[in-house]
Amino acid sequence: MRVDAFDFDLPEERIALRPLTRREEARLLVVKDKTLADQHIGDLPELLQPGDVVVVNNTKVIPAFLPAMRPARDRHQRTGPVPIDITLHKRLDANHWRVFAKPAKRLKEGDLLYVGPNIEAVVEEKGANGEFLLAFMQ
């Protein structure tokens, strides 16, 4: 699976920052006969019919976007430092995370990334479709 197929622009004002106090007021997209309709979760009992399929997304989102910088690999490299966008998605232990990185093609195993003034990470493993294993150091 290519994770970049899920990339799209979403206006900042369309992103929920916290759950609604009244959960039944949460928005619900209803697809029926190839038409789309905006409804609310509270409408769900009236909408469901025998044989309907309900798809529930129970993933948890963590605020885990990290801007990083990969320094030039050597003095002969034509470009300078390369900005890398890191999204943490699975913590393995205190120092190791599975991450997605963009641009993935600019990273290789052994690369050092500067994540903050006192935080560095090393690319320990390059997986498929932009996934990496990073080891964080302080």
Structure, described:
- The protein has 138 residues and is mainly β.
- The chain has one helix spanning 44-47, and strands at 27-32, 35-40, 65-70, 82-91, 96-102, 112-116, 119-126, 131-137.
Uncertain segments of ≥5 residues (pLDDT<50)? none
Helix content: under 10%
Please count the beta strands (DSSP E, at least 2 residues each). 8
Q: Structural class of the helices, strands and pairings?
A: mainly beta
**What is the terminal separation in angstroms?**
33 Å
User: Number of DSSP helices?
Assistant: 1
Q: Which strand order do you get reading across the main beta sheet? A: 3-4-5-8-7-6
Beta-strand fraction estimate: 35-45%
Secondary-structure element order, as H and E? EEHEEEEEE
Instruction: Estimate the global geometry from the Cα principal axes.
Output: elongated
What is this structure, in a nutshell?
By secondary structure, the chain is mostly beta strands.
Spell out the key features of this protein.
mainly beta; 1 helix; two-stranded antiparallel sheet; 138 residues
Present the secondary structure layout.
Blueprint (H helix, E strand, L loop, with lengths): L26 E6 L2 E6 L3 H4 L17 E6 L11 E10 L4 E7 L9 E5 L2 E8 L4 E7 L1
Antiparallel strand pairs: 1-2, 3-4, 4-5, 5-8, 6-7, 7-8
